[in-house]
Amino acid sequence: MKLTQLKHWLKSPEQPKPKCIVTSHAGMADYLMEIEFKHQLVPLKDDADGMLTFRNMEQVGELLKPLGIDTVTLRVIDPYDEFSSDNQLSCCHQDMTITL
């Protein structure tokens, strides 16, 4: 989803505010953002179709607070923890709600 599409969505009075997921992957310095759309997560992109990245949560707040979004879900993903010691799938992410 492009940022301009998100801005138009937020201006629509009938639509509920979208769920925003800020993702931190193990080994990456930047955060990525995904928007829940039709029960699927889609990455937030700029108008040139490039992924939006954030150096810290303050940058996330600077983008979303003026748009009326005051909370996001921070998802920390560790793909190295995907399998437990007995080779069974384990939960490799943790979610927490962050107030901007």
UniProtKB/TrEMBL annotation:
This is DUF6482 family protein. InterPro entries: DUF6482.
